[in-house]
Amino acid sequence: MHKIHCVAALAGSLAAGLVFAASAFAEALSSEAPACVAGDGYQPVCGIAPPEDLELSPDGRYLFMSITPGLAGQQVSRLRIMDLQSQQVSDLDVAIEPAAGWGDGQCAAPTQAPGAHGIHFSRRADGRHQLLVVNHSGREAVEFLELKATNKGWAATWRGCVEQKGAGRFNDVAATPEGGFVATAMFESQSMAPPLPLEQLLDGRDTGYLMSWAPGRPLAKIEGSEAPFPNGVQVSADGRHAWFAAWTAGEIRQFDLQEKRTLAHIPVGYMVDNLSWGAGGRLLGAGIDDAGAFQRCFASHVEHCSVGFKVSAVDTQSGAHRVLFAVDEGVLAGASVAVEAGGALYVGSYTGDRLLRMQFSPANE
């Protein structure tokens, strides 16, 4: 067994999908980080690199974090972990120990530390803890990690993978009950460079689709799932439905994985990014509220982009949607995910240097 460590370095690698592409172009313009001070109902946790996606550990004490390069390309994409009590953040090193039954048996172990875009935690049928990781570093793949509790927190071991041989660029992933996954492909390209001008990617046209993989079945596009920049995704507990964000359409969509058709389009009024399950089976979304601001910051590589954001919840039984928070610009550079943990709501970002801990009571909201 060997272990791959993350190395701190500048990385050249739109929410986060375009963030990975941004650092491959011009040099960044300088931007100043907002003051790291508490505000009305929120407390920033700063200096941690942009945590684009978040997953709560099964003991409720830690957040697993996927780090993106940021709009200025100043970070290396990697996995990190935060102790919720101390708010201490550290890199999550990944040991390499392949095992049968984790992904495609023909997929080779990575030769470099996996990057991290969308991530998803689940409990496998045998009770073991699994973290799926969308990886753009060195290859386009979904990496299968096993997580184990230790006396110092959690340890990660690479067990297998499913590599993307086609042109679809992954954004997010969610495990399915039979041991497979559903992933969003945000667009098709031979690299992380977008295939269309930014203005066209943001105009609401269909650019991507859902993909699925399961043991004994190859990775494949799910017909009928085309959508405008598919982003975050979750799967219902019974595996029947995928809920995913159509980022540039400002919608959350419900897709029937058996009938291969969209059942619901739920307008949310902002560019909803990643999704998470909240209390009572609600679906939580978070994202920026101004495509124009994103376009300007992306073009100029402004790390601390001044843009507002929203966090909202969808009742997946009725389809009712409610905005929980609407936050003005200057607080968080590029909100991308909201996760409930310990009576609070943690909001991550695809650029900048922080996340927010927001006061939140599901029973009273």
Rg for CA atoms: 18 Å
Number of strands: 26
Give the helix proportion (percent range): under 10%
Low-confidence stretches: 5-13, 23-30
Counting helices, strands and paired strands, the structural category is mainly beta
Main sheet summary: 6 strands, mixed
How many helix segments? 3
What's the CATH C level? Answer: Mainly Beta
Organism: Geopseudomonas aromaticivorans
Signal peptide: 1-21
Keywords: Signal
Protein name: SMP-30/gluconolactonase/LRE family protein
Summarize the structure.
It comes from Geopseudomonas aromaticivorans. The protein is 6% helix and 44% strand.
Model description:
The chain is 6% helix and 44% strand. The strands form 6 sheets. It has a 6-stranded mixed β-sheet, with no helix packed on it. The chain has a single domain, classed as Neuraminidase. With 365 residues, the protein is mainly beta.
Topology (SSEs and partners):
Elements: E1 2-4, H1 15-22, E2 42-46, E3 51-56, E4 62-67, E5 78-83, E6 89-91, E7 94-96, E8 119-123, E9 129-135, E10 141-150, E11 153-163, E12 168-175, E13 181-188, H2 198-201, E14 209-214, E15 217-221, E16 230-235, E17 241-246, E18 251-256, E19 261-267, E20 271-277, E21 283-288, H3 291-300, E22 309-314, E23 321-327, E24 335-341, E25 344-349, E26 354-359
Parallel strand pairs: 7-11
Antiparallel strand pairs: 1-7, 2-26, 3-4, 4-5, 5-6, 8-9, 9-10, 10-11, 12-13, 13-14, 14-15, 16-17, 17-18, 18-19, 20-21, 21-22, 22-23, 24-25, 25-26
Protein name: SMP-30/gluconolactonase/LRE family protein
Pfam family, one: SGL
InterPro entries: Serum_paraoxonase/arylesterase, SGL
